[in-house]
Amino acid sequence: NQVLHDILKEFDKWTNPNKKLVDLLGAELVDYAKKMVKETTGFDPDTDIDNAIARLREPLELWRDLPHKVTSVLYDLLRQGIPLDELRSFLQKITSLTDPSNLAEAITGKLRNVEFFDTQIGKWLTALAEEGIVSLLANVAEERERIAAVAQKTLALLDGSLVEGTLRKLQTWIEEKLGLDKIIAVVNDANFDDMDRWLKKRLSDFLGKSVIFEELEKIKGAINKLRAKANEFYEKGFQALTEKYQAEFHYSFQKTTTRTALIDATFDFAADAASAAKHLKQALHGNFNEILSQQLPGVILNKGVLTHEIKRRTHLEVSLPYFKSILDHINESFAEGEAVDAADGRLWVFNLKASDVVSKKTSLSKLSIALQITKKPGVRQFTEENHEYNYTLRLVKKNARREYLEDKVEILVNQYLASEFSGDGKQPFSTYLTDLDKALDEKGIIGSNEYGNVLIGFDISLPGQIFAAWKKAPSDKNDPLYVSVSSRIQEVMRQLIPLCYLEEPDQYKETTAIYPLLVYCALPPIQKVKLLANGQLKLSEGVVPDWEFQESDLRNEVLRQLCAPRLQNTILPKIRKQMLGIPGLADTLAEYEDSKIGKMIALKPNQAKVNFESLMFSEIQLINEIHKAGQRFRQFLDTQDMESAVKALAEFGEKLTNAFNNKVGSSIYAGSALRPLGSLLFIEIAKVFDIKLANKITPTAMLELIILPKQSTFNLDDYFKGKKPNLSEVALQQHIINLGTPML
């Protein structure tokens, strides 16, 4: 692939009428180059150089116009020498689809194939999807033109005739002449003399020596050592990193901030001496605000790029007898602003990439966002917007049983894939698991109610336009809109946390854990509350959450006056109904009678109070982080100082990803089970910012389930690195997809 790009660069030189091939290649390579051109094009360069170069340039120009990942996939397919009719037919189909919904359905139809990622179409689509297939589907309305353009260019390259034929010949020639194996094959002077001349020239240029045979043994040795030691290097490096953590600390925190500025300006005193002098003086004193924000007489901004990067890493390790837990949290946010001069004035193109990753031994949760906004300083003008929101969950489990799949997957299915398991002709998820178990039993690979080693992938993407709602975020944290955001967060979290925690009926026996959770869920949204002298409560909606829930008198009255009625009228009747008829819970049922409400709101023993306060602390931290994200985005939109804008954008990315991935899962009651549901909370917040979004946002989601037999040699940790087992090692694999409704 790289050689093809190198050849194209050479052709740019070869077609220069002021250059001679002898000067460009050296005398020893002129005949060689002519032979290569003749073999791959069929034209003799000595008699028909124009047609020869044109024939060779056409596929290479098309090659250069394609994304690098796509050309890498195509090169691999060409190397295999297989027919590409399947890919060509699919590309022809998607170029003809103008309706984004039809395009999404066409891609989804291919994605349902269990062997999708190993097919020609799967490899091409994966290379095209910069942020993943699910993100491509979620934003298909915005991506349609790009998909069609790349498909059209690929079709022009794989035309099944002259262009593709020339490319295949060139690829074959590269493999035969310039592969690494040609270096390894050199064992003596005779072999060296037979080595391809261009390869020798490239090696000579690389080494900076004209005599390279003596150096070839060193190169061969280095290649062979790298090949032999690659896995060992990785394992040793990873082991050393882990041991460093274990030996030096149980908790570590590191945060770094990096800022860069690249400014290339010309001060033209002939055009406007006064303006040039003024702004040169400002520049020499480090003040570039005016130069960057607007076009000025006597000043030409050749290049203006500002960046702001934030990296935060936390490592937590807990070691107890028979128990060990390691958690790594990595948050990264990179914002860049670049000045672009247009006919109607200076524009700034801002790009943001931010991600938050929480990883444990058996799980990885990642939220990533990408934004591009074009902004004109001094004018509320935002164009050329392109935003992405993608969430990824990866789980691995050895010797998984049915209970594990019910615990980890069922809640996600109910929230994101309900349409695939309900409705006419569809079976509930419990039936799906039963059928799955039977299918494995029939293969004789895994026992009853056992699913072997399981790899679970869950990907969620939201339409990029949802970020437009954040433009309405206020700058004042006590603005009524933030009060509404705070109230909605409280409502949603009190719905989601019980969904994640209350999964097994036996949990109701643990009243020290369940009572404070029910009290928390019975709380109405509260911003500020004050206990008056007459014992009444005064609620205030003018500020975001700031009530003293740790102050016993106030808390007791809040729970008595506000929580007790909801416990009695709504929550406890529902729980008693759920528990009726469940074997082993007859005695426990009495613990949820109305007579126990006083005990519940008393938050005793002390552990119950600790559990309640943990829920409250987690909620307030989440609300504050989301409010800060909104304030930073408003600062980015409003400021006329471009350096401040880049910084605010980076901080927005940091706080938003941290809130909806890390902070969402910080409660001791939910943890990692709640993080995948952070996308639902994100949707609800967007609806508060923009009421026009109500009932318009449907996430695109995909569940990947890979079941391995117990004897599989696949390293489960590799699944976190994006690797997948060979199909020969897979007992069963399925993709279940819910195609969200594109926001047009």
Q: What best-fitting shape do the alpha-carbon axes yield? A: flat
Question: Helix count?
Answer: 29
Average predicted local confidence, pLDDT: 79
Instruction: Assign a percent range to the helix content.
Output: 40-55%
Beginning-to-end CA distance, first to last residue: 37 Å
Main sheet: strands, sense, barrel: 9 strands, antiparallel
> How many DSSP-defined strands?
11
Q: What share of the residues does DSSP label as strand, in percent? A: 15-25%
What Rg do the Cα atoms give? 31 Å
Task: List unreliable stretches of 5+ residues.
Answer: 1-5, 10-29, 178-200, 205-213, 237-250
Strand adjacency order, main sheet: 1-2-3-4-5-6-7-10-11
- Structural class based on helices, strands and sheet pairing: alpha+beta
Keywords:
744 residues, alpha+beta, two-stranded antiparallel sheet, 29 helices
How would you characterize the overall build of this protein?
The strands form 2 sheets. A 9-stranded antiparallel beta sheet has the order 1-2-3-4-5-6-7-10-11. The protein is an alpha+beta fold and 744 residues long. It contains 29 helices and 11 strands. The chain is flat and about 100 Å long.
Give a short synopsis of this structure.
This protein has helices spanning about 1-15, 20-25, 25-40, 45-65, 70-80, 85-95, 100-110, 120-130, 135-140, 140-155, 160-180, 180-185, 190-195, 195-205, 215-250, 275-285, 290-295, 400-410, 410-415, 420, 430-445, 480-500, 510-520, 550-580, 585-590, 595-600, 605-640, 640-660, 680-690; strands spanning about 250-265, 300-320, 325-340, 345-360, 365-375, 380-395, 455-460, 530, 535-540, 700-710, 730-740. The chain is of the alpha+beta class and about 750 residues long.
